[in-house]
Design goal:
Mean pLDDT: 95
Helix content: 40-55%
Strand order of the largest sheet: 2-1-3-4
Order of helices and strands: HEHEHEHEHEHEHEHE
Number of strands: 8
Low-confidence stretches: none
Number of helices: 8
Radius of gyration: 18 Å
Distance between the termini: 37 Å
CATH architecture of the largest domain: 3-Layer(aba) Sandwich
CATH class of the largest domain: Alpha Beta
Amino acid sequence: MRHFLDTQDFTKAELLTLMELTALLKAADKERALPRLLAGASLGMIFEEPSTRTRISFEVAMTKLGGHALYLKPGEIHLGVRESIQDTSRVISRMVDAIEARTLKHATVLELAANATVPVLNGLTDYNHPTQVLCDVFPIQDRLPEGKRLEDVRLTLMGDATNVCASLLLICSKMGMHFTQCAPKRYQLPKALQDMAAFNCLVSGGSFKVIDDPAAAVSDADFVYTDLWW
């Protein structure tokens, strides 16, 4: 059994395999020929805060692949209040085949995973958003500039050091891409995350930089990503 909590838990080859599978499923869906790979399977979706895109994408994916998604809305199960996170994880694990969790604190999804007997998928925490950034890199791989490999791509994020920004930094450095965050100094990525990315780059050959000059940030970018400002 394996959880999907952080792209750091996977090798570049494994992430590429996931994207290859995504491409096959996308092509099959376009032809309305998706295999029912999850027939009879149920996904329990825990949301401590509401979401439009995350909920719809998980729920539609389960339906199209033949499974069923159960939405546990904010406040409905009182995670960690009426029942401990540990007990909630164990009980839900007995009734579903996988758990997706969108939690306010990263520690919550880690505790869910530590006590679950089924795979746990991280649908966003205050630390990261690995499912989103995997889906962000996939269309880049699908629409590479002419003559470029994924490892040649330069991606610039204009925005705050959010959980999405942190996840993009880590997946881009893992994949050997070249990532730039452009933001005023008070909104830039912390040193701990930059150190993790630096290690990834030693292995992958990628690079990253964190700057506050918008013109310089986009001057050689292949893709520009924008996110919210707090």
